[in-house]
Every structure is written in C-alpha cells, then in structure tokens.
C-alpha cells in the first residue's frame, strides 16, 4: 500500500529519507572539476549535429547542403510524438548531410548535419513566452517541444511527453543528485544558475500541478544545496532535500524509493504511481526556452581526469567535436599508455573510438584518466561465484545468472531473470573480483532482444497488411456482386413494370412490323443453314477428287523423275520413258476423272483407246523396222515375187514377215531377187514409215 502524500511530505520536511538495497561507495573524485566556474569554449570550425540525440525517432531534414543557417534555426522537423527537432548551434553553411561517427559504444556512424561556422554566431528570430501562465497549456508544451528539449541527465526522454501527461501527479522530483564519480556539471550548474533552474521548475509546476515539488541533492554537494534553498525560499511547496551519498542514488527508481518509499512497476512508469522526475539541466533548458525563446543548443560538460591539465566544466555547443574540448582542457596524452577518452563516468561511461565524436544532449562528462587512475582492465577471468555482484545490485537482480545466459545467447532465460530491470549502473562490475565487464554483456543481450522484437513486429505488421488486403479484396468482390445483383433485379423489375403498364402498345403496327422482320430474319437464317447442310456432301466429294488428283500428279512427277534419272542415250529407252510417262498421265487422268465425277467415264475410254492405238502403232513401227532390215539383207523367194505392191503397209509388213518366216523354216535363204522388187519393197516400207510418223505426230498432238 502506498504511503499518503501528507506523510511523505512531513518526513521530507523533517529530513527523513529512506535508502535502497545494494549500491556501492566508489571514490567520487569530484574535487578535480567542481572548484572552478563554468568556462565558455571558443567556437569550433565545424559543428556535427546527429539527427537523433534522444529516445524516439529522428526528424526529417528540412535544410540542404549549401544552405546558410542561423544560430537556433531548426534543422529537422517531424509530426511524430516522440520526435524533437535539432537546431543549429551556430550560424554558417551546411556542408554535408550524411553518416558521421557518433557517441555510441559501437562506434558506428549515423546521419548527421555538418555546419561550417562563419564566426558571426548570428541568432535566428526568437519567440519567448514570458507570460506563459496566461497561455493555454498546449501552447507551452509545444514551445518546449519546438525547443528540442529532452532529458539531459539520463537516456534523453522527450520532455514534452512528460509535461503533457494527463495523470494526477503527487510529486514533481527535480534530480540534482549526480551520484557518479568525477561528474560535476549539475553541481556547478546549481551553484551558478540556481535562479534559472528555479524558473524552469515554475514552468513545470504550472504544467503538471503537483501536490509537492522535491529538489533532491546528494549531501556531498553543500554549496549546491545552499544555492537552491536560497532560490526557492519564497516557495514553501518546493522542498530541497539532501539524500545519502551512495551510488547509484541518482537512478530514477532508486531516488523515488528513497524519497517516497514507492516502487515503480516493472513494466510501468513513475507517472503510474503519481510521480514525475526531471533533471536540473532539463529545468535550465526549459527556462531558456520559455523566458528567452532559446532552443537547446548547448550544455555544461565536465572534462576531468588526471590526463588533462585544466579539468573543469565548459559550456559546449551541441555538435562540438570531443577533440575541441580536449585541446582547451590541455589534454596530456603522454600520461596514458594508450589514448583513451571515456564519455560519461567510470561506472556507466564508454570509451570513444574517435576524437571526432560530437557532443550531444546527454553528454555530461569526458573522463580522461591517467595511467592507473581508473581500472578499465580487459583481463576478464572466470567467475568464482562469490555473490558480490548480487549484493551490490540496486535492482535486486541476480547478475551471475544474467551473465551466464547473456554470454550463452540464451535470451529467453535472461529475460526470465528480468534483464530489462537492469539500469546498467555498473555496480556489479565494480565489485567483481574477476573483473568481468558484466554491463557490456547485459547491453549486448538487450540490443539483440530489441532487434528480435523489431523484426517480429515488422513481420506481424506485414502479416496484418497482407490479411487486411485480402479482406479488402474479398469485400470489394462481394460489393461488386451485390451491385450487379441489384442492377439485374432493377432491370428485371423495370421490364416487368413496362410490360404491365403498356399492354396495348404491344399490338401496335410498329411492333407488328418489327416482329415480322424478326420472323423473316429467322427464316432466312434457317434456309442458309439447310443449304449449307445439303451442299456439304458435294463439297466433300469435290475436295476428295482434288486431293486424289493432287496425289496422282505427285506420283506421276515422282515416276517421271525416276524415269529421267535412268535414261540412256538409246532411242529405245527414250521411247520407253515416253510411253511410261504417257501411261502414268493416263492413269492420273483416269483416277482424277473417276474421283471427280462418274459422267467422265466416256472421255476416259477415248483416252484409253488412243493410248492403246499409240501403243499398237509403236509396236507395228518396231516390227516394220525389223522387217525392213531383214528384206534389205536377204533375197526374196519365188513366193515373195508374186506379191503385188499395195498401199496397205500392214498387209505388206505381214506378208513379208510370213514369207521370211516360211523361208527360214524351210532352212534355205531366198533365191535371187531383182532390183525392181527391192525398190518396190523399199518404197512400201518408206510409205509405211511416213504414215506411221504422221499418225504418231497426230497422237502426240492429241
């Protein structure tokens, strides 16, 4: 059960504060830098401003390379609630927008804006809100957001998100503890600018309206406590409370527990238990934004360590390279075995990879230790399970188990041991006798878990988009079908209504004409279909006849080619080839005629008769030639002398053949034949040849 607000306020006024479990007491070493006033650095040649210097998303760049910007001009803008703008910390020209090494343990590069200073340091137009009490609360919150203010003592949570909170707040806690060794920037700021911090508290009090304001300062800072008491003496509801010097008393959860005995839920925020907390540096920035209209462009940075000759606190412009601060603090690199600069304190800081790293909104210290000053041993040894880390843990965790699971990449088991409750204070590593860098393992495991969650979240969002798209397509299809169905029903209803409302019009002369025209068109179409069906067999027969003729012609060509290839020089072979070609042509014509139409049979018979006559004439011609040769060489007998000349060539040829065959059969040659008979026979043969040649020419012509 939470303690009542009145009880807590009464205990605080009486100077009663609780404590928290765990914690360590390292040597503070604050005297190196808290004895001198805050100094102002000269303007660097170049300013490097990372686009993201806080928890949340970065804004969109609203300038381009080559643009001239003035001091205090916004370089980014965004409508995202967790985005705050980045402002130019001096006037000059934008020379580069791109990746640059930033203040991060990984040493990786991020998007930055590089400005080449012109030395004029000219301000842009400023709009202060001195009478903020008479303005709407939202206007003041927007002014804080536009000034680019985020938490300057921890992770850099956007201030306007806290001030715009709608929950009931009991306590507004101003954190001035600054518990980590070596760091004194908040101490010097409270000593020198207590009144302006008080003005920032007034603005926050107006926006949040808490029941009480508690300004907590560690009891090893008496000058700061006195300065804040003087600044707040006219505000009895502002309580300046000194807390125990114990590390990490400046942690948000630890300080809340010390002041109010309330515990922040594991997955909750201080606002869930009625508490909001701001750093003193954040209050200073709020006062500058509201009363002067200045955006957050500079902060106090502690440069300390025995490797610098002039340790102290400096007003550093945001974007100032670390090397620029070290030059003015007189960095003695010979006092270190290897060059080493730590951003932050010895407990929670990290070693920088480059001197070009710029100062950002959460950069509160640069530690440059000499040899043997701070133990940053990298000689990790095996865990001896002494349990000292568990005793020192202010969050009551089990650092041993977290270390084993983080090192073995057993992330689920590490989460089961409440890995994200670790505030990375470094108390466990400080007391570890094996010098194991426990915090580094925890940070790496957290980063891997966050990466897995981001990938899973992206996959789930992609799945949701895919399912939403499918649902949309199905819905659109159903809507189309419904529209089509409705249109169809409407058409049918309109048609039915029209038919019912105009029965007489259906029998009008115009409609009769239309019906008659439709009937004629249907009859014509039916006749065409019937005609096509009746002529289909004839067309098929014609097509078959044409195909058969084409096949016959192809065969004739093939046979003619074969005959021509085997031609010989003799006349007999030529006659045989011609006869074969004539026969093939006759066959082709016959087949084509038979396939085409049965009426062409008579023409085929005539052609056959002509072919047969040609063949007979060819045979007769051959026999007559043979007979002529025999009659020239042989002498005719007495029977042949009685034969009278006749114009009938065939009878002469037959008679001569018979005479010759008879004489040959009797076994003796013909007797003496006179010259006249020979002449008559030769003339008859010549006439027969002439007649045969004439007939052959006629047949070839046909």
TrEMBL record:
Where in the cell?
Cell inner membrane
User: Where is it predominantly found?
Assistant: membrane
Mind listing the UniProt keywords for this protein, alphabetically? 4Fe-4S, Cell inner membrane, Cell membrane, Electron transport, Iron, Iron-sulfur, Membrane, Metal-binding, Repeat, Translocase, Transport
| Range of residues in the leader sequence | none
Q: Which EC number applies?
A: 7.-.-.-
Highest taxon, organism lineage: Bacteria
> Where does this protein have compositionally biased stretches of type Basic and acidic residues?
475-492
Spell out the Pfam families in the cross-references: Complex1_51K, Fer4_7, RnfC_N, SLBB
* Keyword Repressor assigned: no
What sequence ranges are listed for the domain 4Fe-4S ferredoxin-type?
Answer: 372-403, 413-442
Gene3D superfamilies named in the record? 3.30.70.20, NADH-ubiquinone oxidoreductase 51kDa subunit (3.40.50.11540)
Binding positions ([4Fe-4S] cluster 1): 383, 386, 389, 432
Which top class of enzyme applies to this chain?
A: translocase
Q: What does the entry list as the binding residues for [4Fe-4S] cluster 2?
A: 393, 422, 425, 428
Kindly give the InterPro entries that the UniProt entry links to this protein: 4Fe4S_Fe-S-bd, 4Fe4S_Fe_S_CS, Ion_transpt_RnfC/RsxC, Nuo51_FMN-bd, Nuo51_FMN-bd_sf, RnfC_N, Soluble_ligand-bd
What role does it play?
A: Part of a membrane-bound complex that couples electron transfer with translocation of ions across the membrane.
Protein family (similarity comment): Belongs to the 4Fe4S bacterial-type ferredoxin family. RnfC subfamily.
Question: What protein does this entry describe?
Answer: Ion-translocating oxidoreductase complex subunit C
Q: State the species of origin.
A: Alteromonas ponticola
The organism's lineage is: Bacteria, Pseudomonadati, Pseudomonadota, Gammaproteobacteria, Alteromonadales
**Which gene is annotated as encoding this protein in its UniProt record?**
rsxC
